[in-house]
Amino acid sequence: MGLSRRLCSMVLAWLLGLSASIVVAQQAVEPGVFNALDQARQAQEAGRLGEARQTLEAALTRAAEGSLEQALLEQRLGYLALAQERRREAMEWIERGLSRDRLEPSVARQDRINLARIAASSERYERAAGLLAREHQSQPLDDEDRRLLVQLYSRLERYEQAIPLAEQEVSQNPAADSVWYQMLVGMNYRLRRYRQAEQWQRVLLKREPGNPQNWRQLAGIQSLDRRQAAAAGTLRLARESGVQLSDSDLDNLVALQVSAGAPWQAARLLEELLAQRLLESTTQRRERLAQLWQQARDHQRAQTTWTQLAGQTGSAAHWLRVAGIQLEQGHWQELLTTLEQARAGANPDQRRLIQQWQDYARGMLGQDG
Questions:
Q1: 313-to-84, 179, 284, 309 alpha-carbon distances in Å
Q2: Nearest CA-CA partner of 90 in 103, 76, 70, 100
Q3: Spacing of C-alpha 222 from chain mean position
Q4: Helices H / strands E in the chain, number of each
Q5: For position 173, what pLDDT does the model report?
Q6: With contact defined as beta carbons under 8 Å apart, do 97 and 74 qualify?
Q7: For 173-262, where are the alpha helices, taking DSSP H only?
Q8: Which residues, given as ranges, of the chain have pLDDT below 50?
Q9: How many Å apart are CA 310 and CA 210, to the nearest integer?
Q10: 59-86 CB burial, b ≥16 within 10 A, e <16
Q11: 10-36: per-residue pLDDT in tens?
Q12: How far apart are CA 118 and CA 130, in angstroms?
């Protein structure tokens, strides 16, 4: 169930438990209004929403301005509008009822919490967060609504406010639902607090050591923290523990660093995975490693990787990759040597390119002389 529908269901479930008899038990209500509330409830439960609305609106015209009766009718019209999926109207009616300041404190608090839930389901996150935060300050929210407040702060990217709430929850209740730890991992990750994210990810790993996703996420966090050996060690430990991690899982973890805008970390991770033989050192992966070093603008490592690969394959394409870096760096004498090595296995197009680069390099050397 999506967040919007789930929140509305929570509000309506509370409404169905708010019978007219409970209202009267708490506060004296004019008999005519009591009957109207009870009739409207019965009509709503039977699915006759139009009839319920007419009953409430008729009673509202007779209610005294600013009275408890007026507040109760407006409140119920709000929840009826919500049942008809008219959320904006629902909020307006509930707010009117609250503005009379006649409802029992516990009922008024629940109305404000329900307002926050409806606002959240309508993507009015600032409004919802403000309502819940004020209620939490006056009296701690229950687990469900505190989680909602954390989610709202997270959507608003107000992680500094969300994290203490989540930490409070897991501190008070170490057996809290895993979603709390997942939120702590995610929010610290977004703040680039990788050590803190790792701390909470380890809790998830301890809870579910057989879940490959937990191992992958831990390695990914360590990789973004530029601790590639630790990331590779985590993946090695996962495999030794019997957790199924495929080659594609590890390749995807490298790709994740690239998509996160961290090509250097991606290159170091791939290098470590190859060095520890967690991935087979294929030509394709070594080409990928060299490309990642180039993407990270680490020219020395890129040149070294391409040179090693070219020496093993003898491929003109690989030698030309080395030459391209030397050309970009203005290393003319090295470039001429590399181009000679590329010539042996070159096709006609590559030979024309080699000749052009040789002429250019010799011209640059002549200028230097």
A1: 70, 49, 12, 6
A2: 76
A3: 18
A4: 21, 0
A5: 87
A6: yes
A7: 178-190, 194-207, 212-224, 228-240, 247-259
A8: 1, 14, 16-26
A9: 41
A10: bbeebeeeebbbbbbbbbbbbbbbbeee
A11: 555 545 444 443 444 446 788 899 999
A12: 13
Q: How many CB atoms lie within 10 A of CB 283?
A: 12
Instruction: Give the helix/strand (H/E) hosting 92.
Output: helix 87-99
Burial of 326-339, coded b for 16+ CB within 10 Å and e otherwise, reads bbeeebbebbbebb
Q: How many angstroms separate the CA atoms of 95 and 90, rounded?
A: 9
Tokens (6 digits) for 230: 């630790």
- In the prediction, which pLDDT does 164 show? 94
In the DSSP assignment, the letter for residue 142 is P
pLDDT of residue 17: 45
How confident is the model over 333-359, as pLDDT tens digits?
999 999 999 998 899 999 999 999 999
Give Cβ neighbours of residue 340 (< 8 Å, ≥ 6 apart).
none
3-state DSSP assignment of residue 226: coil
Following DSSP, what letter does each residue of 28-90 receive, concatenated? Answer: ---HHHHHHHHHHHHHHHTT-HHHHHHHHHHHHTTSPTT-HHHHHHHHHHHHHHHHTT-HHHH
Q: Which residues contact 256 (CB under 8 A, 6 or more apart)?
A: 220
Distance, CA of 113 to CA of 76 (rounded, Å): 15
pLDDT at 8: 56
Nearest partner of 30 among 71, 63, 66, 79, judged by Cα: 63
**CA–CA separation, 149 vs 256, rounded Å?**
29
Residues in the chain: 369
3-state secondary structure 304-323: HHHHHHHHHHCCHHHHHHHH
